[in-house]
Write a structure and sequence with these properties.
Blueprint: E1 2-6, E2 10-12, H1 13-19, H2 26-34, E3 38-40, E4 43-44, E5 51-53, E6 57-60, E7 66-71
Parallel strand pairs: 1-7
Antiparallel strand pairs: 2-5, 3-4, 3-6, 6-7
Helix pairs in contact: 1-2
Amino acid sequence: MENIEIKTDTINLDQFLKWANIVMSGGEAKYLIQEGEVIVNGEIETQRGKTLKVGDIVSLAGEDKKYKVSRG
């Protein structure tokens, strides 16, 4: 699991995907989220504006790698 440090208390899911370099653009983040390819804390998440907090775990469907939201 890779820790991704954020500088704020929370971050939106689409912003997190870009910040962690999981996607290259906001459009790619939007597409993956809308298609149900993003998993937050073990559940499929389809809301781009989902608020993530420290300790949340994000992954992509079909991939083993996980990203943990941490405080920088």
